[in-house]
């Protein structure tokens, strides 16, 4: 299927590896030009070079921490008028919510809610004027199925989820959509780190914990980042203009409810 977005430009956050990188590659495969952000310069440059080589699209980089004002300014200077925005940022620390102080909660809100809102505010009206825009927020399956050990992430991402729904209907008539992708158990460095921290007292090795987590999934495997990227690309496509304000679970069937 031709997704109808060849020649468009996407700003992809936290794009040097993991789910952000997978989204960038899936968009590049559709002919989308990219501006990639990430905190670490060398991995970002390597990812950009690899995507250029594979897909022959324009790929620029804007190194910086997208959760800070300076990082967002750098990204928007490199890509002031994106057609597609992929909001993505590393999650906050895991652990017992009672051990987190006020600064932890504010930092989580800044990183996983406010930063995405600020980027949306900067670009969405321009998208509406040009009559095309696709915004994807990469959040977490924990938004719909919270885990106490991920309380910082849950609280901040639910805030972003509510905000996105609140404004989505305002822009869809201008062919601008806002949707959230909610991953769980995709094979990434972040997932393995979280599993290790959450199960540090179990006495099992990391590989044993990963195997147990996989066995408990209806899919009996972890998600592949390429699968996530493909879903992201479709939600960014010309065919998805009637689909907005949604929270899309990518969890291998783990979520038990109907809605």
Structure description:
With 259 residues, the chain is α/β, with parallel strands linked by helices. The protein folds into 2 domains: 9-186 and 225-247, Rossmann fold; 187-222, no CATH class. It is 46% helix and 13% strand. The chain has a 7-stranded parallel β-sheet, with helices on both faces. Helix 1 (18-29) packs parallel to helix 2, helix 1 crosses helix 8 (225-235) and helix 4 (102-130) runs parallel beside helix 5 (151-171). It is globular.
Give Rg in angstroms: 18 Å
The main sheet comes to:
7 strands, parallel
Strand content: 5-15%
Stated plainly, the CATH topology of the largest domain is called: Rossmann fold
Strand line-up of the largest beta sheet: 3-2-1-4-5-6-7
The CATH superfamily label of the largest domain reads NAD(P)-binding Rossmann-like Domain
CATH architecture of the largest domain: 3-Layer(aba) Sandwich
Q: Which consecutive residue ranges, at least 5 long each, have pLDDT under 50?
A: none
What is the overall silhouette? Answer: globular
Total number of helices: 8
When the domains are counted, the total is 2
Distance between the termini: 28 Å
Strand count: 7
Please give the share of residues in helix.
40-55%
The helix/strand class is alpha/beta
SSE string, helices as H and strands as E: EHEHEHEHEHEHHHE
Query: How confident is the prediction overall: mean pLDDT?
Result: 93
> What is the C-level CATH assignment of the largest domain?
Alpha Beta
Organism: Bradyrhizobium jicamae
Protein name: SDR family oxidoreductase
Family: Belongs to the short-chain dehydrogenases/reductases (SDR) family.
């Amino acid at each position: 299927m031709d997704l109808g977005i060849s020649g468009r430009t996407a700003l992809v956050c936290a794009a040097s590896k993991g789910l952000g990188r997978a989204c960038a590659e899936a968009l590049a495969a559709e002919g989308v030009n990219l501006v990639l952000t990430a905190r670490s310069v060398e991995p970002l440059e390597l990812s950009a070079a690899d995507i250029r080589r594979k897909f022959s699209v324009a790929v620029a980089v804007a190194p910086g921490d997208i959760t800070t004002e300076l990082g967002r300014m750098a990204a928007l200077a490199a890509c002031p008028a994106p057609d597609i925005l992929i909001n993505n940022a590393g999650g906050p620390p895991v652990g017992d919510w009672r051990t987190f102080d006020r600064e932890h909660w504010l930092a989580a809100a800044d990183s996983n809610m406010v930063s995405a809102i600020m980027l949306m505010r900067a670009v969405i009206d321009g998208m509406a004027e040009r009559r095309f825009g696709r915004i994807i927020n990469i959040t977490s399956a924990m938004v719909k199925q919270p885990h106490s050990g991920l309380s910082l992430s849950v609280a901040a991402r639910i805030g972003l989820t509510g905000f996105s729904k609140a404004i989505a209907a305002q822009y869809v008539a201008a062919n601008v959509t806002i949707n959230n992708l909610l991953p769980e158990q995709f094979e990434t460095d972040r997932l393995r780190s979280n599993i290790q921290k959450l199960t540090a007292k179990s006495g099992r090795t990391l590989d044993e914990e990963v195997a147990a987590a996989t066995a408990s999934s209806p899919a009996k495997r972890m998600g592949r980042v390429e699968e996530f990227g493909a879903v992201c690309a479709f939600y960014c496509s010309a065919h998805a203009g009637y689909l907005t304000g949604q929270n899309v679970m990518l969890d291998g069937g783990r979520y038990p409810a109907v809605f």
